[in-house]
Amino acid sequence: xxxxxxxxxxxxxxxxxxxxxxxxxxxxxxxxxxxxxxxxxxxxxxxxxxxxxxxxxxxxxxxxxxxxxxxxxxxxxxxxxxxxxxxxxxxxxxxxxxxxxxxxxxxxxxxxxxxxxxxxxxxxxxxxxxxxxxxxxxxxxxxxxxxxxxxxxxxxxxxxxxxx
Length: 164
Prior knowledge:
By secondary structure, this protein is an alpha+beta fold. It has four helices and seven strands. Strand 4, helix 3 (about 105-115) and strand 5 (about 120-125) form a beta-alpha-beta unit. The longest helix has 17 residues, at about 10-25. The model has no long low-confidence stretch (mean pLDDT about 95).
């Protein structure tokens, strides 16, 4: 599996990945996360322009996507019912999704991100049990509750300290 920056030519494939992820979430009891209009073409284009969007490929096929944003995330400034385990600079993983067919997308994403920065944060909806399991299996730990920037909804906040 290869990881590269997303290009504008990839936007339709990324939107197809998001559609597959939404179907999977709905079929598995997560009906509240990622409504019909999120993530959309504008968000993907904005992420590409900022240089934070990535795709995972197998051969010539895009099988997954994510954003890695290094620096402060406004929605992580306030955490309830817990605390972050570090105050050092961090990267945030957002919008991680796969086509549902490729294996190892989340691990490849996490490995890539931890090679870029040794302290990561992520969040997910309480109903997104598969993502919670993937985060915890990799070594992320629950830290508390944050409120999403898009809808203000509660999200379970995680962090992962790789070194020191």
